[in-house]
Hints:
Belongs to the MIP/aquaporin (TC 1.A.8) family. SIP (TC 1.A.8.10) subfamily. One of its GO terms (molecular function) is water channel activity. The chain is an all-alpha fold. The protein folds into two domains: 3-198, Glycerol uptake facilitator protein (Up-down Bundle); 200-237. It contains eight helices and no strands. It has helices spanning 2-21, 24-35, 40-64, 72-80, 88-112, 130-154, 159-177, 199-220. Helix 4 packs antiparallel against helix 5 (88-112). Residues 191-198, 209-213, 215-221 and 223-238 have low confidence and may be disordered.
Amino acid sequence: MGVIKAAIGDGALTFLWVLCSSCIGVSTYLVATTFGVVNEMGSLFITTLVVFLIFLVFGFLGDALGGAAFNPTANAAFYAAGLGHDSLVSAALRCPAQVAGAVAGSLAIMELMPKQYHHMLEGPALKVDVQAGAIAEGVLTFIITFMVFVIVLRGPKSALLKNWLLTLVTVPLVVAGSNYTGPSMNPANVVPTNQLWTLPCISKLKMTAAKKCTFSSISVLEKRQVKKGANRMCHLSF
């Protein structure tokens, strides 16, 4: 029953994550328009604040749902590191639940978002060939996974500071990968795009990168018990 509850929690949280993260571009546009922000740095700052607030809210939601996560690479990385409470069975069940939640979230946002903003809902999409896109996603996933381990295991105890550091790590990587895939370091977020044929290749490479980073991280960082809900902090991305 615990495994089923974990899968349901992951599916629900991923549904909400895709629903909310899809609105980051629209939120940035509306805030920038309201305050008359016209330069790119100002818009980037607004986006950073929006992402921080979303991370903070989803951190509390993850705890409320018993440590639910919305990123399959988080489950893979923390399971490989021997951290958290996942078993092989629960890890295998949570990933499909997250993908199902992502599909439901993408369908919901297309129905709920006003049509004049639909052009801002374009999800991650390949802007280069498949090999280059997969490599870019693998490298970005490796970097973000390593940084999350550093922040979670060696970072501040304050959830506020942890989420702020995660935001400062996430946004530059999103910008860095924007010319390749969007990017999406969260395999569940690839599902809502119109390029489903890229999902197996990119998702497999993401998982491989996350696992390789796990073994690299635990050889560099002191392995310690991660408090309840820490695995939800391995988010990413858009």
